[in-house]
Amino acid sequence: MATHATIEQTSDIESQPSAIARRISASSRRFAQLFGMFVAVMACGILALSEWNNAAARRPQVGSNLNMVSLPPHSPLLSPLSPPLPLPLSPTPLPLPLPFSFPEQHIWIIRHGDKYSSYPDCPENRPLCFNKSLMGDNPPLTSCGVRQAKTTADWLKDNSSSYGGIKNIAVSPFARTLQTSLPLAKALGLKLKVEYLLSEANQPEGPFQPLNTGADKETKKQLEEASDKWDLHYGSPPIATPETPVKMYDTRVKKCAKVLKERFPPLSGNLAIFTHATTSFSIAYGLCYGEGGNDSQLQKFVEHQKAIAPAGVIHVVLDADGKCKTVEQTNNVAETLGCGKTEPFKCEFADFPAWYWSHANGKGPGKCH
């Protein structure tokens, strides 16, 4: 028994060097494998880095022609996993932008379309007439006036597009001006900024029954649409009435020109103003010359302009500082329709020098009404 145990111990001792050798051999193989992988990875990395640097060298400098770039077929630039290229150490500087400036402002001043008060008083059974008890001093548009409004709206939309389009609409609170502004507001998706300072000249009172429930079906529909377009964030108080010529009216239109410039500066974009015949001339003059104008300038302006017809337009251009650049000749856009009884209107300067704006000669002969 003792001899047998001694033999087993001797056998175990003799086998130990062989096991150790096997373990060393396995470790060496694993080390060799890892080292080989490390060398392979380093080699791939060096190749990739070389390719990357070559591509970076071919990358165009800032401001150069991008069409001249050609990439190698296996460039890392073609791989979505490739890292972004480094910026050149000394890129060509970008040109400095020119000083920022705002564009000029275009303002279109539009008279309302054909109105019922241009027609005879209503006898019985007459289809187109002026019902003063129903309409008062606030007659709506006739069917011709509605067509004129649409014609001018189309013209404004087309002609304003080359200047960046119309961004705001200001309108007198009378039914005929609200109706005239409606086609443009609908076409452009704009709200109506109702400004009482744009009201008709020399009025005994404000608009009579503004949303007249006794009006015809089409008028009521349009006035309801206008009320839906009413900009509730734009506040404007009513004007003082009854308004007398010269002093009260002149004071009001001077305030109107000032308010319009303050509330619609050039930064606000192009503007359409819907108002009345006399007021359209007053506002055009006020926006351009009101603050620094003189009697001779007023005379020249009035004598130069043609009478304004229903849905006619006066185009005013202001520079970035709100200074007048041009006042274009009256453009009676809707006269091509050949309908209606509302006549083109202009008070000649010699008949009433201060009709549109204050003047040293005041009323003169006082022939305009």
How much helicity do the residues have?
25-40%
Look up the CATH topology of the domain at 105-351: Rossmann fold
**Helix-and-strand structural type:** alpha/beta
Strand content: 5-15%
Tally of DSSP helical segments: 8
Q: How many whole angstroms does the radius of gyration measure?
A: 41 Å
- For the record, give the distance between the C-alpha atoms at the N and C termini, rounded to a whole number: 148 Å
What is the approximate shape?
elongated
Instruction: Summarize model confidence as the mean pLDDT.
Output: 83
> What is the name of the CATH class of the domain at 105-351?
Alpha Beta
Low-confidence stretches: 1-17, 59-82, 87-101
Task: Describe this entry's structure for a reader.
This protein has a domain of 247 residues: 3-Layer(aba) Sandwich (Rossmann fold), CATH 3.40.50.1240. It is built from 8 helices and 6 strands. The N and C termini lie far apart (148 Å). It has a 6-stranded mixed β-sheet, with helices on both faces. Helix 3 packs across helix 4, helix 4 crosses helix 5 and helix 6 crosses helix 7. 40% of the residues lie in helices and 9% in strands. The chain is an alpha/beta fold and 369 residues long.
